[in-house]
Request: fold
Amino acid sequence: MMMFERGLASMHAAKLTALAAAAGMTLLFGPETASAETVVKWLHLETVPAYLKQWEDIAAKYETEHPGVDVQLQFLENEAFKAKLPTLLQSDDAPHFFYSWGGGVLKQQAETGALKDLTEAMRADGGAWEKSYNPAAVKGFTFEDRIYAVPFKMGTISFFYNKELFQKGGVKAEDIKSWDDFLTAVKTLKEAGITPIAGGGGDKWPLHFYWSYLVMRNGGQQVFEDAKNNEGEGFLHPAILKAGEQLAELGKLEPFQGGYLGANWPQTLGLFGDGKAAMILSFETTEATQRANSGDGKGLAPENIGRFPFPAVEGGAGAATDTLGGLNGWAVTKNAPPEALDFLRYLTNAENERLMASTGMIVPVAVGAEEGITNPLVRASADQLAASTWHQNYFDQDLGPSVGRVVNDASVEILSGQMSSEEGARMIQDARELE
Reply:
């Protein structure tokens, strides 16, 4: 899932270089550590112009205060990022820090020796840097009590909907409480001649959200943890098999646009932004990303977008307040200069996180920055996270790259009717046992 934000659209393939400037090095390092030729290479996959401008401004301000430091923003589109990063990390062109979804992927990167262990730096001076973040955020990037990424933001996956299309189709979002209610809404929209859901099967991971949430709603945290740890019945647990059956039931309704199996995530966001589908299961930044990927660059007006959580499953062990979503941060490569760490501490301080939260870019992790959230849809995501009874990282990230790929493949094949629930579960279980 690889989301991220994790699945953000492709818009800028060029390297973006901020301005260099002049003043003394502070924070973690003294003035003597600032080299006149220090370049900090920052690899990201952000595409929303307004958000990129914020980062450029933050980098320029930092450079103004730190002579000789040149922060260079480097972009890779989401799928290219995932495909090229493993090789890039072992090359001389490795970035100094890069976007991370945490989970098993980050753990594997750490085990290869490609990352810098941040534990001492973050726990110096009584742990001031570590304590500046939500403890749950730091924990998500910690393996065996060693910290491998700097927290940046949290998020949760939920349904966003086009209010006008819901009204036209005679569907009320407030009535969608259970999975059966959701299926009823899909049928009602189809009967009204409206495409119910924008689906991105080309990238696969956008459709794994459905299977993941259904596993969570049916089985609850213990069933997933057992499967993750290859205990008990693993991914062949009855609750997980039921989740796949429910996913197949959704697929039989043909809820997505024609050709959805070939649609990538940018195209899927654009379809929703162009008003050609009533719903999308997506990230907290959907209001901005649907606009950026729409045909006219404007997309749906904010007041025309509603939001509701993934519905409960009647009789399931999971709670409606359990959330699936990201915990994103910045992983630092082993040869990064000290200035990269110093800039990351600056980028993710409460002031800058509050600034990014104020434009709807993030649900912040810096302590005290949550007050900056003003966007109603992002605020709804933040409120849902605040009340979360179990926040689970994306399955395809948490389970590691090899199992994660199988999860994505199986989700698409179950949903499209090419594989049964049990066949998909067996495929995932086999991949888990091979690790």
